[in-house]
From TrEMBL, chains A, B:
First-tier enzyme category under EC: oxidoreductase
Superkingdom field: Bacteria
Cofactor requirements of the protein: FAD
UniProt entry keywords in alphabetical sequence: FAD, Flavoprotein, Oxidoreductase
Record family assignment: Belongs to the acyl-CoA dehydrogenase family.
Domain Acyl-CoA dehydrogenase/oxidase N-terminal intervals: 39-157
Enzyme Commission code(s) on record: 1.3.99.41
Domain Acetyl-CoA dehydrogenase-like C-terminal residue range list: 470-591
Identification of the protein by name: 3-methylmercaptopropionyl-CoA dehydrogenase
Amino acid sequence: MSQYTPPLQDMQFVLNELADLHEIAALPGYGEATPDLARAVLEEAGVFASEVIAPLNHSGDIEGVRLEGGAPRMPAGWAQAYARFVEAGWPALSAPEEQGGQNLPGVLAAAVEEMWNSGSVAFGLLSLLSRGAVNVLRHAGSPELQQRYLPRMVSGEWTGTMVLTEPQAGCLSAVRTRATRAADGSYRLHGTKIFITYGDHDLVPNVVHLVLARVEGAPAGTKGISLFAVPKVLVNEDGSLGEHNDVRAVSIERKLGLHATPTCVMAFGDGAGAVGYLVGEENRGLEYMFIMMNSARFAVGLEGIGLAERAYQKARAYARERVQGVEQGGETSAKVAIIRHPDVRRMLLSMKSRIEAMRALAAVMAASMDQAALNQDPEVRDAHQAFVELMMPVAKGWFTETGLDIASMGIQVHGGVGFIEETGAAQYLRDARITTIYEGTTGIQAMDLVGRKIGRDGGRAIGAVIVRMRQVQADLESHAHAELRAIGAQLNKGIGDLEAAVESLVKSWEGGPKPALAGSGPFLELLGIVAAGWQMGRAALAADRLLASDPGSDFLTYKILTCRFYGDHVLSKSAGLRHAIVSGSGATLEFSDAAF
Amino acid sequence: MSQYTPPLQDMQFVLNELADLHEIAALPGYGEATPDLARAVLEEAGVFASEVIAPLNHSGDIEGVRLEGGAPRMPAGWAQAYARFVEAGWPALSAPEEQGGQNLPGVLAAAVEEMWNSGSVAFGLLSLLSRGAVNVLRHAGSPELQQRYLPRMVSGEWTGTMVLTEPQAGCLSAVRTRATRAADGSYRLHGTKIFITYGDHDLVPNVVHLVLARVEGAPAGTKGISLFAVPKVLVNEDGSLGEHNDVRAVSIERKLGLHATPTCVMAFGDGAGAVGYLVGEENRGLEYMFIMMNSARFAVGLEGIGLAERAYQKARAYARERVQGVEQGGETSAKVAIIRHPDVRRMLLSMKSRIEAMRALAAVMAASMDQAALNQDPEVRDAHQAFVELMMPVAKGWFTETGLDIASMGIQVHGGVGFIEETGAAQYLRDARITTIYEGTTGIQAMDLVGRKIGRDGGRAIGAVIVRMRQVQADLESHAHAELRAIGAQLNKGIGDLEAAVESLVKSWEGGPKPALAGSGPFLELLGIVAAGWQMGRAALAADRLLASDPGSDFLTYKILTCRFYGDHVLSKSAGLRHAIVSGSGATLEFSDAAF
């Protein structure tokens, strides 16, 4: 099946030139994160992703997960691969040393996660969810809970889940699962949950579920929801595994994609009740769950990038190998590989340029998360935090929408064979199709962006980002190199459209949220395009600077051309989006529900 | 599963107000095609599509086609439905009376075909291909061939195929299947063909393959390819079925979508050779096959519309039924159906407005095909033919790309349940994914458009269309109704961008095809958006006019609002596309193959 070649050169360029890894290495505890260490970690992760994970992706899709004897059975080879993943210490890469982690910066971990996702999103999801569960327990779990569960969750020996949705409703406020206090201070849970990713599987001996439930007598609505840790297998005081808890996977969903990921309907408390341990305080469950969801949202954005990179590589390989037609305007009538056809080149560059733009923006965001957590200066921390919160809907929403489009384009490059499942290109589209939905749909992200991050904020946070964008644009437009000036001109238009859109949204917000929300989808796309274009502008400047000492570098030369393509083909969409945001909400809101 | 409600009101509006059905009814032989007859045919077809075909779509997808005892076995219920389809005379709707047809205009048949595709593209494909085969035999088949095969192919008792592709290459010039002359004037074929849609099935007793092959001693390349009619079962002189021919389905492809369509690898002449009858003259096979491909291209465009309509209806039903969240800026804290959320409304209107725009453009094209075939005035015929040829790549390329996007958006409206196969929304995306590929990829369409229809033509044909667009824009901009003026303003910008793009392409074409071809993909989209926007402008004018005598019509009122939405959210993309066409080819062409 298709090979995966880790994009190490671009990742190092992004880390060193755009995400300022040297500044991250100056943060407390991150002193070891030198460029050399980063390179070594990326190389090692690249070997693991390409040699161990990537080969499982297609076979896992074909075999899928089956419920056997009441337990999901993972596809062939997955257990061995996951055991090697744990043995190599990958799940603990960015965890603190005192919990058995390697304490590497998040910015490096993000690049590594992109590779797991390129290898296989179905595989990467398991550690993604476990990291989220670890974060919640670390933040809100009692010392006893932490001591008993965290070490083996951090190491990956046990995995974690997020257990939210119930059959009757998608609103969290409608949670009906009951939790009853037991004499020993634990609780007994009863309820059915759906869409539980890796809810049960045979890769590890224990799964720790973080379950939303309602304690008897709790207030109605979202303020009466608590969070419980519910292990699949009870853990004795000495840490050994005890009895099976009253928890089981009832069925596995038949999904469009992610066939190797068990998405379970879970029954808690079919019998005497599932033993659960309260996380934090009663009735604060949603607050804790949001910790998990926030980290998961960024991680799902990285799924968009990882999938897109894999789809791109497969399309590129096919375009180089597949001979069809003669070159239009070429000098001979010999048949050529389809990469010589202009429209195929355009599709490949559309994929490549957007992937590199997303990777750059993701790295800059991840670096800001590290700064927001560890910088000594509270003002610097706050500024980074504001940037991260503003951009999070873009990372979740725009990276995944773009990844979905790129996966579909990958099939298109293949032509007819792309529609045949054996080829493997179709799987990327099927897998990508959930990324714009889970952990909050693109529409939910857009509402969060326009409502909380722009409207209620009065546009302050984004104003600070636009100042930074304008500086890059000025550097580009005053540059000696014509390609860079052209990129600067497109960035200038994009920023202008963004400013006009923000002004319109902030103004309309004062009169009520509806018009702004009617433009929220196009605005999320606009901010994504312009923010990633800003990073492509920085990339072009950095590449030009580095070319002075490395004039023969193809990587740097074509990086500038990739940025130019991005400006002409992606940033150029900003005018249309601006119009839809500023003038397009009337029809949307005036339409009667019956007239659709 | 999901219901399908034929969009009869919009179809009649389009036929009567935009496609000028009364002028078609004035053409020779079409006198019966009055609005009343059209309404009756649409209603009857709507009943068949919704009650007989639509219920088979999801079950057919789940069951799929299996090879049993060397023959593909269709899913349960398909044979009965197809028998009723033939019995009701639907395959012969637009065929001439002397061949047993009903001789109804193509513009009416196109609306009916949209409904078959909404019911099930997998089902509609069978008669689509048969009609293509009929067209070729009618045009190029000998009287004997016509007499023996046409009547039962026209009626649908037997079906037809297009047999082009071979395992070793996608270029038609590389056809290797051999045809040897036999003593009785027939030929014996030997070769393997792939991707043969409905290559074999158990719905009818005979399948007539139109096969490209090379007669011994023929010239190399495309000029040595002939076309043969190769029946699955030989037909005796008295018309009865004789022996099974040396033709069989070797395997069925496992595809992303269209699971109910048998896509076969076919072996011709495993034994003594498959008996084939030359169609037309030797070595003119490609010319005849293009007759089939041209009609098939428009028909595949209709698949894009039909699929999009079905996906829209399903998303709309879900959005009305699914209660989640409170209305932002609403007056109560009650939970509401998600159709109340602005971004969901935006998605639904994005789907609806583009479907209605495509339907209008398709009908206008189909009417032009009728005019090009039958108008008494040769100048009028030529003008219509030039319009049809110009727009055909848009019908094939843009309708299907738009349909694909709409099918994907339909999943998005569903959220998580859209990813579950049982829901049925995912199937529309899987099925739509081939429509941008088969019968010539979007890239091939774009190359045809920019090369043959714009570049070599020097922009004359499109210039004539732009004059017609400008008239509609002028009527809109001078209108008393502000909504119509707003639509006119967007159309004006769109036409301006189209003119600039055409000028740039025509100019650059003189220096060689590459820069224009590098912009061909965006140009196909731009022409699609603006041409369909032109029809939406006409729709708004017609709706406004009709409102004078029917002021309470919700259909007409919301038609104008739908056109307004199209202007603000779809036509507004024109500026970005123009930039990509005019300025975006440099990076595409300068990139080195190795640097991707």
